[in-house]
Amino acid sequence: MPRKPRVSLPGVPEHIIQRGNNRQIIFASNEDMQAYVTWLADYAQQFDVAVHAWVLMTNHVHLLCTPKSSGAISTMMQSVGRRYVQYFNRRYQRSGTLWEGRFRSCLVQEESYLLQVYRYIELNPVRAGMVTDPADYSWSSYQSNGLGKQTKLLLPHPLYLRLGTTDKERQQHYRALFKHQVEGKLLEDIRKAANKGLVLGNERFVGEVEALTSKPLREGKRGRRIGWRKENALN
């Protein structure tokens, strides 16, 4: 089944996934992760993309971003991707591709799903069994969003800022969101939307995006549609 056309709208958050080719390792050391974070911060600033949440795993990356222009995220990802591949191939004396084709992405409805995607992204190391507390994982935005660690990369979303009137209050309320894992239908919906290029939101939001872009952004039904046999018999 062909992948849905990529949709990016100025001012609308996107959940992005970039995987290693055949799920191969893309970060073999802390130095690799630091290099990626540094270049991501540089290109995010250059192309006016606000990064709200992120995590670097051994073989993939998750980002939650809001662009100021429709092509900004693609340009940012292409730029950091090319630079990192050059670095990685030189460092490990290899050649060829590193990424699994183009990155995957989906638009995220703010009021219903944005903070859930924050949680989904920063809980990745916990789901993977690498740590029991997201605060113990250095290569995600949790230490900034939840503990106040300063970083050049992060720019809080207005919805995050509404969690409190001070930094300390926002961080306290943010940490409270992590008392439970992201599970069940919510987990399935987040994964499916990003992997299939759908829209993560309610029916109204999906309909608004489809009307604005003139593109179908719902999961199509599998199999042939009803009545196809009769139509073929008549042709």
From TrEMBL:
Q: What SUPFAM superfamilies does the annotation carry? A: Transposase IS200-like
Gene3D superfamilies, A to Z: Transposase IS200-like
Report the residue ranges that make up the Transposase IS200-like domain in this protein.
9-124
Q: Which domain of life is it from?
A: Bacteria
**Family matches, as SMART domains:** Y1_Tnp (SM01321)
Q: Which Pfam families match?
A: Y1_Tnp
Q: Which NCBIfam families match?
A: REP_Tyr_transpos
Q: Provide the protein name.
A: Transposase
In which organism is this protein found? Bowmanella yangjiangensis
